[in-house]
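Listing S7. Sequence submitted for prediction.
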Amino acid sequence: MKRYSSNWYWFYVINYSLVIIIIFPIYWTFISSIKQPSELNGNPTFYPKTITLEYYDRIWNFDRQERLEDTDAKDLDTYLRGTGIKRPFINSAIVSIGTILVTIVVCTLAAYSLSILKTPLKNFIFMLMILPILIPGISLIIPLYKLMRELNLVDTHFGLVFLHSTAMLPLGIFMMRNAFMSIPSTLREVAMLEGSSELKIIFNVMLPLAVPGLLTVAVFAMYVSWNDYIYAFLFINKPENTMLNLALKQLAISDNQFGLKWGDLTAGSVVSFIPIIIFYGFLQKYFVRGVTGSAVKE
């Protein structure tokens, strides 16, 4: 039986304390979303005395009596009163899936050429590609808006996919490049001797071995796209194209401008982070391997 010094117990105490600190806001948000209105607005309690799904039903369907026959409403609040958050949820899902696909394809091809192929000045090109990591994205808002307007991508889901994918490229290329460089070069040489084309080598040899890095990039792309607020606020104006985070902000605003509908806000928050938790839960073991594999290379 292994014996540990007393110092090890401090590691457990610190780790469990950090877990509680991280989990508690999520727990508090969840229990607040299932409390009765009177209990939510009264003295705070750590568990609901009576469970209700009123807030979830309201934000998903909002007000059935005010449901609009014409979904082409120009006012976001009026539009959401007729549709709830179903449409914004679908919009966010579409943009996130598109961002994941575009990011994976572009980062895989770019990282492969910068790590395996004999590309001229590839180290210099790689440095230029990861340089935007050091530049705050908010400082590029004005030129980005001008570019998006010239390309007619304002108020489109593809425009957000383009922005989110571009924001993910430096980190995605960095991680995929390290993932490819950790694969023995002899495997590619053997495949070339057997007459395989470069695309076959990528899909049949390299990508199966780089799955942890690939899925890690997918998790980061999902996180960036799903949680985006700034780009969705600036580049989306039509109510029918609204993203989930903007819809939750609008639904949480009370009739009193100095108050918030805490029940609607907490229920919407739970709905918004469930897809992220599920996505990360399925890919957790690959995510950890991908992050450590990108940080440490043999």
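Caption to Listing S7: primary sequence and predicted structure tokens for the chain studied. The first helix runs from residue 6 to 33. The chain has two domains: 6-52, 76-295.
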